[in-house]
Write a structure and sequence with these properties.
Strands 3-4-5 form a three-stranded parallel β-sheet, sandwiched between helices. Strands 1-2 form a two-stranded parallel ribbon. The chain has one domain: Rossmann fold. The protein is α/β, with parallel strands linked by helices and 158 residues long. Helices cover 53% and strands 12% of the residues. InterPro entries: Glyco_trans_1.
């Protein structure tokens, strides 16, 4: 955040999700230093899309493994471009529909953030292409594929 702030002084950071004990202590320190950092804490599931669509960028920056990677897909479906760590699950799922940064590379992360915030064309193209891609993961699409596979597995005629 500090690196990006030097290039884009009016940048804000919104952090959602319940922090663990150590991060909660860190957040308290940040609150005193950075007035443009907003810690939302736990967000009810029905409010999450609102926050996704408000943001200029969704950032998920895990340095270890993740599960399926549903959260970036949710952000994309809300029209928000995604920057995420280049861990395997994100690269496999998101392919070229997000920007990737190696874990524990804050200068590269700051560069991707400032690039995306300053380049409207890149941001719009990323969102447009990603939203077409994310339709593959809608409940109806996944449900139809799953039903087709079950029928095939059961050797049931179409």
């Amino acid at each position: 955040y500090r690196i990006v702030k030097t290039e884009i002084p009016n940048v804000n950071l919104v952090i959602g999700g319940k922090p663990d004990y150590l991060m909660e202590k860190e957040y308290k320190n940040w609150r005193e230093i950075y007035k443009e950092v907003f810690f939302m804490g736990y967000l009810p599931e029905d409010e999450v899309p609102y926050y996704f669509s408000m943001g200029d960028i969704f950032l998920t920056y895990s340095s270890s493994s993740e599960g399926f990677g549903l959260t970036p897909l949710e952000a994309i479906s809300c029209g928000t471009p995604v920057i995420c760590s280049s861990i395997l699950v994100y690269r496999e799922i998101l392919k070229n529909h997000a920007l990737f940064v190696p874990p524990k590379a804050p200068l590269k992360l700051a560069d991707k953030i400032t690039t995306l915030l300053n380049d409207n064309e890149l941001r719009n193209n990323l969102v447009e292409n990603a939203q077409k891609f994310v339709k593959k993961y809608s409940w109806s699409t996944v449900g139809k594929r799953l039903e087709k596979e079950y029928m095939r597995f059961l050797n049931y005629p179409n």
